[in-house]
Amino acid sequence: MSTPPLEPSDSFAISACQGWLELGNSDEATAEWEHLSPAARRHPAGLEMKWMLLAHRCQWDEAVGVGDQLVVCAPDSCAGWLHRAYAIRRAKSGGLQQAFESLHPAAALFPEVDTIAYNLACYSTQLGKPDEGWEWYLRTLQIANEPARVKQVALSDPDLEPLYQRIRKHP
């Protein structure tokens, strides 16, 4: 099922919204988002921008709902799965275990997406399962376009600190 294209005015509003966010002005970004048509607000691009706005404002409980909508309306995209898990980890009613459980099915749906495996490595490690985290990290390296870059990022990621020694020793 393909997603219909956005109207030019909606594309412009989303671009403007993104620009304001990049400048750190979520008030102006929100004002631009308000210009979207009702159809664009339900479109994956509109929902993704809404998620970004909520994330910028650390409104994680609301961001979970937008992530849910993205998973439903864009099932062929991993973005909704990643956004939802990221928000769940930070939501008042969420946490690491819930984030792991929400993202885990996406690993089978998107086996080529290294970001999913990487996040599962982080969640597992932080849940006190370093061996499982290590397996997810190794999977990340196998599917990543730039494994050396992944290693560099991992060695500065506090979520993976319990794995630093293994990561350093791994070629």
User: What is the approximate shape?
Assistant: elongated
- Please mark out the parts with pLDDT under 50 across 5 or more consecutive residues, or reply none: none
Number of helices: 11
Rounded radius of gyration (Å): 17 Å
What share of residues are in beta strands?
A: under 5%
Question: Can you describe this structure in just a few lines?
Answer:
The protein has helices at 8-22, 26-33, 38-42, 44-56, 60-73, 79-90, 96-109, 114-126, 130-143, 147-154, 164-169. With 171 residues, it is mainly alpha-helical.
Task: Tell me the layout of helices and strands.
Blueprint: H1 8-22, H2 26-33, H3 38-42, H4 44-56, H5 60-73, H6 79-90, H7 96-109, H8 114-126, H9 130-143, H10 147-154, H11 164-169
Helix pairs in contact: 1-2, 1-4, 2-4, 4-5, 5-6, 6-7, 7-8, 8-9, 9-10
